[in-house]
Design goal:
This protein has 499 residues and is α/β, with parallel strands linked by helices. Helices cover 61% and strands 8% of the residues. The protein contains 21 helices and eight strands. The strands form two sheets. It has a five-stranded mixed sheet with strand order 2-1-3-8-4, sandwiched between helices. A three-stranded antiparallel sheet has the order 6-5-7, with no helix packed on it. The N and C termini lie far apart (81 Å).
């Protein structure tokens, strides 16, 4: 027996023993549970129907309370983390589409989540190049890629348009019938491609719907199985590499799997994956082997990479006035540049970034032992001892617990004051990050605004929101700073003090 086969059998035996041990442990626990259940049943006294009905009602009530508490505890994670991963109703689909969603910014938009489209686009080509001597395997991989892209694009279309799967084709047909090819040639071509991929996807969707939901027991076993299958394929593909290069490949592969399962689509958790992936991508495409296919792919890769860099550079320095007149100012952080060059002092920076907040922040810093309750905002950068004094409640989980414990706004304010909190910092745009279908964060923030509104236990120290007041018998409105009223300028923050 060869050394490789011996090692393979040894590893397989270890894995098999681990699985058997887990199953035996589960079986032992299940048997113990059944014995305890049987003993408790034998010791139980006969009960009449009324007692059983009362106990059943109490059990249901306790279960409902437990479910509500669990949902409340899970909500902040769903609101903050899952917005990167997506809210597809099928968990399996949600995981399968992460690479595409990350590349195309399906769930989260903005330059801070832009990884460059070519990192994903060339993956099927690389896989195909590895099987140039065995085209059958390459064709299978390309077919698998088509199946994958059908799932990813259909899901992305549904998410971006905020429509159900069954309404995608009517939506596409309406677009096709409404425009001329000469006016929108690329968009129409994409529409027909989406329509074809939708037909490929629907059998997959029906099959996944039967076995997978938002929460299930099949998605992670499927992911683990795919991980093992591709591991054996990868092991065969890199058998010619030395142990150092092979170890690096295994590290990248394992890191990719961990990020896929636990990273939730948050791109900065996968920086190592992106860096190593780009290295291997370049290494494969610049292999010393010469062939017309490899030369063509390498030339395409270089061309598209240069094109992408140029597009990114132009986007970064272009005139952004087409979006809003103020977005062009975001090319450089002017207050930071002026502060670093000595033109601005600390107060100048605060007044530029947060107009009107300097006096309130000065008071907060004077009372250095009082605690601060913070909902969003980047105020902590200007607050002394911000690592000890500030309670962060960006998804309002803490406030939701307060509303469950105390009956009215006054008692909530008194509880905060008794616990040492004196100031409340609020990001007025907190609800804008809510991507959940049920709008749970928006509902909690509206409840929090209800706590702030006309609450005699707190007072407003500063805000950059401008509202208008209409005096009696005077048609000319009065502009003033405030949180509630006819909003003239929405602003970004509010600072309150608990009396």
């Amino acid at each position: 027996m060869s050394i490789q086969k011996h090692i393979f059998l040894k590893r397989s035996c270890i894995l098999l023993c681990m699985i058997v041990g887990m199953l035996l442990s589960y079986s032992s626990k299940a048997e113990s549970f059944q014995q305890n259940k049987k003993t408790n049943t034998e010791q139980a006294k006969p009960k009449n129907k009324q007692q059983k009905k009362t106990e059943q009602k109490e059990t249901n009530t306790k279960q409902d309370q437990k479910n509500r508490r669990k949902a409340a505890n899970d909500a902040p994670i769903r609101e903050e983390i899952q917005r990167y991963m997506g809210y597809e109703p099928i968990l399996t689909e949600r995981y399968m589409t992460i690479p595409y969603d990350i590349t195309m910014n399906t769930n989260m938009q903005g330059g801070f989540v832009d990884t460059g489209y070519y990192l994903f686009m060339f993956l099927p080509v690389i896989l195909l190049l590895g099987f140039t001597k065995k085209p059958f395997y390459g064709i299978l991989i390309m077919l698998f890629s088509i199946l994958y892209i059908s799932v990813a694009t259909t899901s992305a279309f549904s998410v971006k348009r905020k429509i159900q799967i069954k309404f995608i084709v009517p939506n596409i047909d309406n677009f096709i019938n409404a425009v001329e090819f000469k006016d929108y040639p690329v968009s129409l071509a994409c529409a027909y491609v989406y329509k074809g991929l939708y037909k490929i996807y629907m059998p997959i969707y029906r099959g996944l719907s039967k076995i997978s939901g938002p929460k299930d027991q099949v998605t992670y076993p499927i992911l683990a199985t795919l991980f093992l299958l591709f591991f054996f394929v990868l092991q065969k593909r890199i058998r010619h590499l030395d142990k150092y290069k092979a170890s690096l490949v295994y590290l990248l592969y394992f890191f990719c799997f961990i990020w896929l399962v636990l990273g939730s689509g948050i791109i900065w958790y996968g920086y190592l994956m992106l860096a190593l992936g780009l290295v291997f991508l370049t290494r494969v495409l610049t292999n010393t082997q010469k062939s017309w296919l490899r030369k063509g792919v390498l030339g395409m890769f270089v061309f598209v990479s240069i094109l992408w860099i140029m597009m990114g550079y132009v986007y970064r320095i272009a005139n952004h006035a087409m979006v809003t007149p103020d977005t062009a100012k975001l090319l450089f952080d002017i207050p930071s540049v002026k502060y670093q060059t000595g033109v601005f002092d600390r107060n100048d920076v605060i007044n530029t970034l947060l107009p009107g907040a300097d006096k309130a922040l000065e008071e907060i810093n004077k009372n250095g032992e009082t605690l601060v309750y913070r909902i969003g905002t980047f105020f902590p950068y200007f607050i002394y001892k911000n690592d000890k004094r500030i309670l962060e409640d960006n998804q309002l989980a803490f406030f939701q617990k307060l509303t469950q414990q105390f009956q009215n706004r006054t008692s909530i304010a008194e509880a905060l004051k008794a616990s040492g909190y004196r100031y409340i910092l609020v990001d007025l745009n907190t609800a804008s990050i809510d991507k959940t279908p049920e709008r749970s964060l928006e509902k909690k923030f509206m409840s929090f605004l209800g706590f702030l509104y006309n609450n005699d236990s707190i007072e407003l120290l500063a805000t950059n929101r401008v509202i208008t007041l209409t005096p009696p018998d005077d048609p000319n409105p009065i502009y003033t700073h405030g949180v509630f009223g006819n909003i003239h300028s929405p602003g970004t923050y509010a600072i309150y003090r608990i009396k």
